[in-house]
Amino acid sequence: MAKRMDIGESALTDEDSATMATAPYNYSYIFKYIIIGDMGVGKSCLLHQFTEKKFMADCPHTIGVEFGTRIIEVSGQKIKLQIWDTAGQERFRAVTRSYYRGAAGALMVYDITRRSTYNHLSSWLTDARNLTNPNTVIILIGNKADLEAQRDVTYEEAKQFAEENGLLFLEASAKTGENVEDAFLEAAKKIYQNIQDGSLDLNAAESGVQHKPSAPQGGRLTSEPQPQREGCGC
Amino acid sequence: MSEKDNGENLEEEATYEDENEQKPEERSHVESSKEKEQEAVPMTRKRPEPKPPSQSAATEKSTADTPKVSDSPAAQTGWGYWGSWGKSLLSTASATVATVGQGISNVIEKAETTLGIPSPSEISSETKDATRGGENSDDNSADEVADGSSFPIAGALGVLSTISTAVQSTGKSVISGGLDALEFIGKKTMDVIAEGDPGFKKTKGLMNRNSTLSQVLREAKEKEEQQTATEVTMATEKKAHYGLLFDEFQGLSHLEALEMLSRESESKVKLVLSALSGEELDTLKEEMEQLKEAFSLAEFFEEEEEEKKGDEEFTKEVTELFSELHISTKPDKLITVRTSAHEWIAQFNSSLPKEEKESEDNQEVEAGDGDHDAKKSVEDIHAFAIRSLAELTAYSIEMFHKTAALFLHGQKEEVTATDRAKSLSQLTIVLCKELSTFSKEFTTCLTVAGVKEKADVLNPLITGVFLEASNSASYIQDAFQLLLPVLQISLVEARTELSQQ
């Protein structure tokens, strides 16, 4: 378990109950993320690695959607990521489409060792574009980068696909944790940048961002990101 | 619509201050005596209510202008922006919401009367119309325990029995076992709202599309967050914020997701119905009516059997009802949290006789057993109770959400939508009864552990547990109602499949 941050003055001696209940609440923004992509590409594992810093070897299929949250820091601003980890199974496709609304960021995941998951990206992208707002930041993630020997999709072609479609792109590994942090952070940076330059209107319906202007900017807080709650129901 | 209908005043403190600012001359005399209780229970709150933002702006302004208000007015104003997600929706709905808000305050008044909780007019003749604050119930139980404090055990039981006597004396037939009736408040709320506002009847509960339950709960949670972030509170208080805990168990997210599925199903149903006509439409409408009936939770008003249920019975009942749904998931999380809460209570109860016999320093011996020691403070018990209620409610809503997702994934139906509705309605009742049982067990723990505590420490905690249990029950019932459109669309789709074959 990673270190906790304490926002209050009082000593938190009660370890087990404090972990959940005294999680820091002084963040300035909430960003809603969705994670999409074919079944078995490792969406839930990416989330688990991000929130728990652990690899979950045996993850059951997600039903509908699962959730995870973590507070990160971008340009000195605390941002709470509210992550919707959708089911990848085709039979849930109609259901998961309902969850896209109001997402500020979308992580579109494929498996670098399975070409079919890469080939389906255009369909996922269509959904993401149609069901979110124009400002939604989409980041393409090639997962399982640790399995270099089984690679089926080259970095270059995916990079090109991302550029053609105006997506951020990273290869990552939920197993080793490589680039997992960055995947979530890069998207957050982009969203935050959109807020700063005014291209993302916070008052617009379904911007996917909530702002809490009155939140105190705790000077004594560490900048270490805070894992909160695991998202996968396993 | 008066300002006291403002749904933002979820925290008692806020409610109190708000009322205070409206009638300073009336309230000021109560202030000093109440202050302590208010501080002791930041977690006691009324069920959140929807409200139009225009109003909140007005209230926040006046709050900021009032010199009396002690905690930061700046913080209060901030929440106007914070809630901007639902802003546009809310403002279009202000009329409906205003009526609803009024309805609710009536209901709370009614419910409190029903429960034998004296209205402020009984406590203080000058605060006649201040019926909103939870301090009413605090006062009531405060008196009760004060009376019984010289006989610790009798006093403990006295809290419950005196209230239940008061309840019976109101002549309402609903209550048979005293405070367990609290679980029905949510249901009653809906009914009275429906009574007072025919237009609202159709949507039932707080689920008109313009102000969803998750929105309302989100605002409540955010308010708690705000308080937690700005105030330097004791660790015990932090532990016991229901709204924050409910969110951290992902209850809010699952509720929001369920609302999304519900809304989408609802519009699909409308679309299908608009495309039908004649006999086909009539048949479908009839079937949908039947389905709706299964959602009425009629059994809630039947006399409850007071049989004490064993530990396995809840598990058995829930598992069985769940299996009747024929879906590929199990309510394991729910059962686990429920079981561990029960074990906690059992452990607490079994530690009691020891505690009484042995001198106080001997209790140290038991402290080795992690958090299962006998030295639980009333704050610990309260915190655990609130946490368990939040967890149980969050997992119940998660279960409903998963259920909805599985209903919608379009596999061939093995059970009819109406049968599923019946099982789910039964499940809702089981869950609500369980919450009621928990509230009773936890408050018994509190009364037993708190025999040496002052009434103004103990009673707010007891009230808090009862109120959050009652809130929990109504959230679960509201979430259950969200499943109606989901089952409607699965019924419609099953029919279309049939006619195509």
UniProtKB/TrEMBL annotation, chain A:
Residues 207-234 are annotated as: Disordered. GO terms for biological process: defense response to bacterium; early endosome to Golgi transport; endocytic recycling; endosomal vesicle fusion; fibroblast growth factor receptor signaling pathway; Golgi to endosome transport; phagosome maturation; protein transport. Its cofactor is Mg(2+). It catalyses: GTP + H2O = GDP + phosphate + H(+). Pfam families: Ras. It is an enzyme of class 3 (hydrolase). InterPro entries: P-loop_NTPase, Rab14, Rab_GTPases_membrane_traffic, Small_GTP-bd, Small_GTPase. Gene3D superfamilies: P-loop containing nucleotide triphosphate hydrolases. Keywords: Acetylation, Cytoplasmic vesicle, Endosome, Golgi apparatus, GTP-binding, Hydrolase, Lipoprotein, Membrane, Methylation, Nucleotide-binding, Prenylation, Protein transport, Transport. SMART domains: RAB, RAN, RAS, RHO. It is found in: Cytoplasmic vesicle, Phagosome; Early endosome membrane; Golgi apparatus, trans-Golgi network membrane; Recycling endosome. This is Ras-related protein Rab-14. The gene is RAB14.
TrEMBL record, chain B:
Belongs to the FAM114 family. The keyword Kinase does not apply. Pfam families: DUF719. Residues 1-78, 112-147, 349-373 are annotated as: Disordered. This is Family with sequence similarity 114 member A2. Residues 8-20, 136-146, 358-368 have a biased composition (Acidic residues). Residues 21-39 have a biased composition (Basic and acidic residues). Residues 54-65 have a biased composition (Polar residues). Keywords: Coiled coil, Phosphoprotein. The keyword DNA damage does not apply. Residues 274-304 form a coiled coil. It comes from Cairina moschata.
